[in-house]
Amino acid sequence: IRLHPNYHEYELSSPETKKLFAMAAERGLFIQIAMRMEDDRTQHKLMRIPDVNFEALPGLMKEQDGLQVTILNGMKSLRGANLIRLTENPNLTIEIAMLEGVGGIEKIMEQVPYEQILFGSYFPFFYLESSLNKLKESQLGMEIEKQITWENAQKRFAKT
To answer: Residues 65, 86: contact at Cβ < 8 Å?
Structure first.
């Protein structure tokens, strides 16, 4: 189930979201939450859509033990203590489509175990080569690269 709370105008703290998480867990589904759909630098200043507020997510996930949740398009601004707090739950993953900067994957791995990082490209909105180049320029080693590109996803989604 892919959610866009900021575009559909609801909060993760709403009772409806809590019910949705419970129903997804009951059915063995996984949830993807898009933090944003586009880089805010491309939005007109009068029509900016704010990023999703993830404050309620750790509590929601704690109530639904085993529910797999992936945050999409969050790596441009989700960093530091906020990222660490979210990824304390091993059932939460992030993907790299909007990750910017040289050595970006290695920098994220200082805060998040590589087992919780997934390959993401946001294709066709972004060029696939952008995410492939993030892997090429990183010094991950074949084993970690393989985990990020497909094994982490396979392990998690085989459970659902």
So the answer is: no
Three-state helix/strand/coil letters over the chain: CEECHHHHCCCCCCHHHHHHHHHHHHHCCCEEEECCCCCHHHCCCCCCCCCCCCCCHHHHHHHCCCCCEEEECCCCCCCHHHHHHHHCCCCEEEECCCCCCCCHHHHHHCCCCHHHEECCCCCCCCCHHHHHHHHHHCCCCHHHHHHHHHHHHHHHHHCC
Q: Between the ranges 43-47, 105-109, 123-127, where is the mean pLDDT highest?
A: 105-109
Domains and CATH numbers, the chain: 2-158 (3.20.20.140)
- Counting residues of the chain whose pLDDT is more than 90, the rounded percentage is 69
Residue 160 confidence (pLDDT) above 60? no
Show the tokens assigned to 29.
């589904």
Place of tokens 């392990």: 155
pLDDT digits (tens, 9 = 90+) for 39-60: 777 777 887 888 899 999 999 9
